[in-house]
Please model this.
Amino acid sequence: MVFAGAMPASATTAPPVEVTAPAANGLPPYLAVIRPVSAERLASSWHEGCPVGPDQLRLVSLNFYGFDGKVHRGELVVNADRAVEVARTFADLYFGRFPIQRMETVEKYNSDDDASMAANNTSAFNCRAITGGTAWSNHSYGRAIDINTVQNPYISGSGAVYPPNGAPYVDRTQTVPGMIHAGDATERAFTTRGWTWGGSWDTPIDYQHFEKP
Model:
């Protein structure tokens, strides 16, 4: 694969950076484009008082393999110091034909995490507290990503399932498109780069969640 170099985290008007890889596994070439992002573009997902500013975030537009077997373009907002690594990780998922239903930035859902999860949306940055708590989530730093939230639900310590339409997928003995399992290629694409998978936690269990603080 042909990959771009890292983007400086301190850049405020950085030019776009491309992360590319040639056609493989019967799929067209992979392209991710990393750009600075403004407060206006972040909309309701960011506000004054958040732990990082827009200048510390990047908008990543990338190819993903859909549930329909077609190639789509999606968008993630991540921390500048994770942007190239995220683009490379999703290249692995793309060429591995790991299906993703949709990938939209969370302001499309008025930055409502429940609404984004219910839509099976794959997303990253959202300036919010951890589920059920008051501390900043790693999503607030752009250092966490949730993938296929329906097939990979969050299970609280009390057993509540989020999103509720993810309840049929609590049984992890299933093998269905878009589901993440311990040791599979999707999990390894993140954990070999130093990310932690919430599916390996004792409580809560967060099958959709990867983070690298």
